[in-house]
Amino acid sequence: MKLLRFSKIRPPLSLPRTRLLSTSKPTNRPVSLLPIPVLPSSDIPTFRASAFHASLPAILPRGTFSSLPATKKWTTRASPTSPTHFALPYLEQYESAILPHEFTSTSTPTSSSSDSPDSPDQRSAPATSFHRADAPLGIFLAWAAMTSTSTSTSSSSPKRSTSRLTISQAPLSSLPQALLEDIPTPPLVLEAGKGDVYADSIWLGLAPTSTPLHRDPNPNLLVQVAGRKRVRMVRPEVGGRVLEAVRAGDGGGGGGGSGRVRGEEMMVGEERRGLEEWVWGREGVDVGVVEMWEGEIGEGDGVFVPVGWWHAVRGVGEGAVASVNWWFR
Questions:
Q1: Residues 95 and 144 sit within 8 Å (Cβ to Cβ)
Q2: pLDDT tens figures, 50-95
Q3: Residue 290 is inside which H or E element, if any?
Q4: Strand 290-297 and strand 31-35: pairing?
């Protein structure tokens, strides 16, 4: 298959009850890290009272969405402890489907500490380039297969260049009917509110993946189809202060967006660096002592992000990472 040229865009787990982020280096942004609570039940009255109407983050009971056909059909693994891979014989049947692809190239300095985003204290490097294009699903599948076979290769270079290809924020309507039937809209999305599904998306990649801090204009349910994702959230007023402080520190030269929805201005440059450092790093802009909620979801799990809450998401571990989300009200 002929590759397309990408056009450049300008731009709970058992967590402690509460802990203050502490590292070997001093931090100028003290954050009380709280676990996102796991609801005792997935029934709609419980979800409404504890999360939807309360406008509070929540993880649905573990495995609530494990019955989605996609959790069994889209990925495969050699053993329960081995990394997950995309199920190429199944997905390649639909390789001509046109979906939004994002290509990000980063340059990460080597450090003596862990190089994995599994570490909440990792210093995040800025994206040096970002490109987006609509392309056949087969492009991503070929890249994923090629990359998966070379993950054992290591480099002793003092600087590691990393390129990532993902399918990001692809509307479910862009999927072939057979794939769409693998991820039916959960009753919780249809019945908890007015039944109005504002938008939906799928997200496919290989860990590590990253979506910078942003907010959504509607409540959001993120369901994990494969792999693991770590989510951090802060209240609407806190995220707004962080974005203002990051842009002030950048001399006002940020992307110019409002932080509403995941925008292209957040994917490159100093704004991304500042937001990532504040959420995941050792240091960051000073917005006073604040609370941050953290949770991790695996296959069949789902997390609720209330309207306006700022959140950052990372695919962690190894192998395939696949998610679907619905914005609803």
A1: no
A2: 999 999 999 999 999 999 999 999 999 988 889 999 999 999 999 9
A3: strand 290-297
A4: parallel
Residues sharing a CB contact under 8 Å with residue 36, sequence separation 6 or more, in sequence order: 12, 57, 58, 59, 231, 233, 293, 294, 295, 303
What would the two tokens of residue 329 be? 């009200």
| Dist CA 82 CA 92 (whole Å) | 22
Q: What is the per-residue pLDDT for 10?
A: 38
Q: How many Å apart are CA 183 and CA 228, to the nearest integer? A: 18
Residue type for 155, please?
A: S
**CA-CA distances (angstroms) from residue 40 to 49, 87, 133, 240?**
12, 33, 42, 31
CA distance 242 to 224: 28
Element (H, E) at 272: helix 269-280
Q: pTM of the full predicted structure?
A: 0.82
> Helices then strands (H, E): number in the chain?
8, 17
Sign of CA dihedral 271, 265, 147, 175: positive
User: Would the CA dihedral through 166, 203, 320, 214 be positive or negative?
Assistant: positive
